[in-house]
Amino acid sequence: MSSIRDDYIAPWWTYWLHNFPHVNLNFQPIDNTFTPQDQNYQQSLIFLGCVAAAGLGLNLLCLAIYLSCLCCCRKDEEEESKRPNSCCVTWSAVAAGLISCAAVGVGFYGNSETNDGVYQLTYSLYNANHTLGGVDSLVTNTMGSMESGLKQHLARLDEIFATRGDYVQTLRFMQQMADNVIKQLLGLPDWDMAKVDLAAIADQTAYVEYYRWLTYLLLLILDLVICLAACLGLAKQSRWLLTTMMVFGVLTLILSWASLGVDLATAVGTSDFCVIPDKFIMNQTKDLISSDIVHYYLYCSQTLPNPFQQSLTIFQRSLTTMQIQIQGLLQFAVPLFPTAERDLMGIQHLLNSSEASLHQLTALLDCRGLNKDYLDALIGVCYDGVEGLLYLCLFSILAICAFCAMLCAIPRAWTHIASRERDYDDIDEEDPFNPQARRMTTHNPNHATNVHSFCSYSSSMGSQSSLHPPAAQAVSNAPVSEYMNQSALFGGNQRYENVPLIGRGSPPPSYSPSMRATYLSMTEDQIRHFGNDFQA
């Protein structure tokens, strides 16, 4: 029996996946023949998932070591040493974003290709199921008409032709032809069991594929949203958003490793089937259908004999013989027995419908229809389906790389943001030369009375010493108190340095950085004591 075909050649990637090591959970190599019922073969596919789980554990361990080193070895850096870290964070974020976008694009393509392949598989299964259902329906209807309708007509004609032995002998011969037709129909394989199996497989496959496609679609959207949210957190320097995205990044990293293990195991198992699909089909149908019939449909070669040709030929000859007998009875018996015309016409109509069923049955039993469905299913699974699974594996790998880069960049970005906030908090809010202090004083007028204007106070002292001679130093300090109260009102003004002295037209004196530092180191009591000593 020839098993060489030229209408289907498995793609190269199925051979590549088929040559993957097949090892059970006891680390023993097993045969890579597709036998899903075998426990060792199932363990070899589970072993691939375990390899992905081990990769996940190693990945999480490396990330934990990296984060631990980052937390333990972090030191306060100088201003010039902060630029490289910021640049490193930026480039890491850019790399993570680009890899994530590439992964999402590859994932969408792989998900679509896998869905197309599975859709072609289910479509072919439904077509084959429709063909087998049509064969079963034609056989059942033909047998029913032969067993019930023909027998009833022959029984009535036997009563009518009871006086004519030659006509009764013709009726007996027609009954033998009818029994011969029924015998040939019973010799055809029972397609009902195969039809139910194909329908169940198609329904279950379509159900699983819908939720697989939906799950990957949600995973792709989740990856894209996390990437965009992480970029937004880096741009806005939002620590809580970065923390949230870090948690979701770890979750997505786990999902990516899980999808990689499932896709890899599915691709390897499907490739094992695609390399030698005919052998698996023969093994699955050996208890249901003859191997000659299965081989005829799998290869559909002109050199192969049609296993139904003999049965169909006998069926056709029997119908032809019966029609010839009916034509003779209509021609010679009806003039003698007019009441027999109705039954003879009924038998002729039944034979004509049986002949039409025979032509339909011959067309449906031809190997070309089922073989085309079989090849379409193979191409859908082994070309589009396995190729889509490989792209989904590539998506998982790219997503793992992207989220690893993101999880490495977020802690550094968090450290960079914290250092900037710490440097910003080191500025003295009581410093009148600090723009932040002036903004706080503007927004909080009640606090303005507690802030002393160095410029106004020093300007007051300068004006007093420049306008009064030394002999007249025993002057009342009322103008000073009036000026201190007035200067407190201008303490919240952002341009308080240009406020003119009370009753004077002279500008405020200039001050040096040493005077500014001296003022900042003095307390309020020291400033008041210094003013009283100066007035005295």
Automatic annotation (TrEMBL):
Gene Ontology terms for molecular function: intracellularly calcium-gated chloride channel activity; volume-sensitive chloride channel activity
CDD domains: Tweety_N (cd07912)
Name of the molecule in the record: Protein tweety homolog
GO CC, alphabetical: chloride channel complex; plasma membrane
Keywords: Cell membrane, Chloride, Chloride channel, Glycoprotein, Ion channel, Ion transport, Membrane, Transmembrane, Transmembrane helix, Transport
Membrane topology classification: Multi-pass membrane protein
Domain of life from the UniProt record: Eukaryota
The encoding gene: ttyh2
Organism for this UniProt entry: Salmo salar
Function: Probable chloride channel.
Subcellular localization(s) per the UniProt record: Cell membrane
InterPro entries associated with the record: Tweety
Family classification: Belongs to the tweety family.
Source organism phylogeny: Eukaryota, Metazoa, Chordata, Craniata, Vertebrata
Residues annotated as transmembrane: 45-67, 88-109, 213-233, 240-260, 389-410
Pfam family, one: Tweety
